[in-house]
Design a protein that fits this description.
The longest helix is centred in the first third of the chain and has 15 residues. A hairpin with a 5-residue loop joins β4 and β5. This protein has a single domain, classed as Cytidine Deaminase, domain 2 (3-Layer(aba) Sandwich). It is globular and about 40 Å long. The protein contains 4 helices and 5 strands. By secondary structure, it is an alpha+beta fold. Bound molecules: tetrahydrodeoxyuridine. Tetrahydrodeoxyuridine binds next to α2.
Amino acid sequence: MAFTFTSDEIAALTQRAAQVAENSYSPYSHFRVGAAILLAADERQKGAIVAGTNVENASYRLTCCAEQSAIAAAVALYGPQIRIRAVAIVNLNHEACAPCGACRQTILEFATPETVVFFPNAAGETVSSTIAKMLPAAFNLQRE
Ligand code: THU
């Protein structure tokens, strides 16, 4: 069973993602992406939202996606035990924008089986799926 969210909660998450996308460093692609992560509701994470944007580099492959930036910020702020309840991804280019494969693997690292991903489809609607559905047969290692 995936986590469920009210339309207000989804709007708050996508709004944070849209805000941070304004800070995108994307002089090469001009594709401005924002990602907002809703953390677990426990004592430490308190359902906080942490956002990140894409940061490109002249050496293109060093580009950091918005999702990865947001996750790095969340770990820095809340520690290595973070658990993601939901991620919202938006872009300011009005394009469909499902997370790339690398970002799916990065989200999965901190996900639960219920984690939901919200992203815009080709019609500009916010659609959702679970990370488990978006990355079947994922690579996993036992954590010590
Ligand atoms: N990008 C993201 O930030 N997230 C994704 O899931 C897909 C792509 C960024 C990377 C690059 O700066 C630009 O979008 C075009 O690929």
